[in-house]
């Protein structure tokens, strides 16, 4: 089999759309599963839409997701340049060749004339007006400095068909296609032309992209055929939807990779979830790292129907990744979120241990640990728990004794605290879980907290714990 070469060809829009990331992922997985190459090509022929810093966004989102490209603008390769604007001079030659082959023609129509072709429904289709201009006349007009574009010459009649590996046979009537512009008046190619020339020159074996290109692919095939080039194999991917009717959109903060990172998701969970949007591995695995996906990747698992983005599932998966992380790694990733809280001298390692398996996304951290930073005043009804058989009367009895124990304890680590306070409970003739319940309420002012009383004591430290117990005793008065 020919060497598999796939490419991801984003336009530099300044953000990484999750749909784009999925295309990149599948192109990467397909290449790597087949010992092939994965190439990054930047499609920036629309210079008006160019955004500063956009290339860095593409590089960093791919690399932090674990998609290392073999060739690309910043890593080089034998088929460069990998940025279309740097290839500008190469396209015109191919367009002229296509004119000689009858597949394209020069067009000099003015904006006004083109506008006059718009019908009452606002639709416009070019009428091949300039097709009749002879090559000699066109060249003379160009030499005289007249502005022009080059258009593709689509047959008026007939049908085109090709096989897509996901969607099967795709048939399109030529009459449904338009003589699109291939070379613009500024000399830049359009996507319609550059994708064909570049995929051919870069020896791309499999073109993997969104379904929005499914019906324009016959136009590209006409060019491959006219040039006598081998068509690539096509793999079009289903759309990702927000719900039954709406696509994911950056505008709602639900499509941009970086937005998810700032919302507290980790790269490996995002890429894992994105993998499942349209693909199900044979073993039905859900939590998979990229190397495992490479092993399992298989086109028969790709669905034709749009996939719906499920926040709940992504959150769950993110929580699984957090749980599985080492404490060091967790702290590193959580740093920006810890920085939002005034943790003062509290020990980050201990807090991390306490919450790592109790949150799904890192942005839950400030709220989760707020009670460690400050305990709010609370109503004594909070001591009441039917199951534990506790209430504020018990608290009144227990807390002053606990306070003494804490003041005299030799060491403030979890184990010592647990053992010593259990003895205190015994001496008070109550169950130790009753003591711990009452104490935890006194320390935190919350019915539910991550961790039990002794864990909280250890994190707060002796001084702060004692001061909280004292103030809880005051609150009872
Ligand atoms: N630049 C196109 C896009 O961003 C690429 C489509 C393709 O992969 O051919 O949608």
Which blocks of ≥5 consecutive residues have pLDDT under 50? none
Helicity, as a percent range: 40-55%
Strand-and-helix sequence, N→C?
A: EHEHHEHHEEEEHEHEEHHHEHHHHHHHH
Please tally the β strands and state the result: 11
Largest sheet: 3 strands, antiparallel
- Mean pLDDT across every amino acid position: 95
Rg estimate, integer Å:
32 Å
Q: Give the cofactors and ligands.
A: glutamic acid
The span between the termini is 83 Å
Strand content: 5-15%
Shape: elongated
- As laid out across the biggest beta sheet, the strand order is 3-4-7
Tally of contiguous helical segments: 18
Structural class: mainly alpha
Describe what you observe in this structure.
Helix content is 44%, strand content 9%. It is mainly alpha-helical and 477 residues long. The strands form five sheets. A three-stranded antiparallel β-sheet has the order 3-4-7. A two-stranded parallel sheet has the order 1-2. Strands 5-6 form a two-stranded antiparallel sheet. Helix 7 links the parallel strand 8 and strand 9 (233-237). Helix 6 (191-201) packs across helix 7 (217-227). The longest helix has 24 residues, at 453-476. Glutamic acid binds at residues 9-11, 43, 191, 195, 209, 213.
